[in-house]
Specification:
By secondary structure, the protein is mainly alpha-helical. The protein has one domain. Helix content is 77%, strand content 3%. The chain is built from 10 helices and 2 strands. It has a two-stranded antiparallel ribbon with strand order 1-2. Helix 1 packs parallel to helix 7. The chain is globular, with a radius of gyration of 19 Å. The N and C termini lie far apart (40 Å).
Length: 240
């Protein structure tokens, strides 16, 4: 459901962007992105605290402190070593240069990279498949709506075709999560949610133009909780 909302938002925004071909003034673009970034940070902090804090009677405890820290550290080391962000940018620029893409194709490639590559796409699709909660994808749809409108004002109708990439990419993740939902225990889901929320906060900071953060290089952090709990499960099988 969340992916379908995302697809519709991109298509509608593209047509609106094409209608206003003269483009959106830079100051308005920056103001909108700042507001979206601020909202994303506020919402993500709430999501993080919901999973991080546990009320036990009259006291408040925290859960998953060490795992969250390890996930971020290990994830960023792997991401920086591979340099996912640079590879994606180089790949996109290489395709545009090699094939001398027309505006239609440029809009498709640019939209596909922006809308599909990010922690919101992965975590949102996972949460939609595991728990049926499309909240993250709905928030992503809002961000993508504004981005698609801006891109379409520059590249034209080609941006709309990137909605198909979103449908295939996020839809596949959601379906896989639904099929293997039993493997995603409450502990794994909570850890993924906490790590993902921190990545969204980093993305919000980037939107606000406070600091350029290579969020793509932090994506491997989402794999650490899965590997960790998978390892514990294997140990328990041999121990039992």
């Amino acid at each position: 459901m969340g992916t379908l909302i995302n697809v519709v938002a991109i298509v509608i925004a593209t047509f609106l962007g094409v209608i206003f071909k003269k483009g959106i003034p830079d100051r308005i673009q920056k103001a909108i992105m700042f507001a979206l970034g601020l909202g994303l940070i506020a919402v993500s902090i709430g999501w993080f605290l919901r999973d991080f804090l546990v009320i036990d009677g009259t006291s408040i405890k925290t859960e998953g402190d060490l795992l969250v820290l390890l996930s971020l550290v290990i994830g960023i080391v792997i991401g920086e070593k591979i340099d996912i962000d640079a590879r994606l940018n180089d790949w996109a620029q290489g395709i545009e240069t090699k094939y001398k893409l027309p505006p239609l194709a440029k809009g498709f490639v640019a939209g596909t990279l922006i809308f599909c590559v990010g922690s919101m796409a992965i975590l949102g699709a996972l949460m939609d498949g595991i728990s049926g909660d499309p909240t993250i994808l709905i928030v992503k749809s809002t961000l993508d709506f504004v981005t698609a409108m801006v891109l379409a004002s520059v590249f034209g109708i080609g941006v709309a075709f990137s909605a198909f990439s979103v449908l295939v990419y996020q839809g596949s993740i959601t379906l896989l999560a639904m099929i293997s939902a039993d493997l995603f225990t409450a502990e794994i889901t909570r850890s993924l949610s906490m790590v993902g929320s921190l990545l969204l906060i980093a993305m919000g900071i980037s939107f606000m133009d406070i600091k350029r953060i290579k969020v793509a290089n932090m994506l491997p952090a989402l794999l650490v909780p899965i590997v960790y709990y998978g390892f514990l499960y294997v140990i328990s099988l041999f121990g039992g």
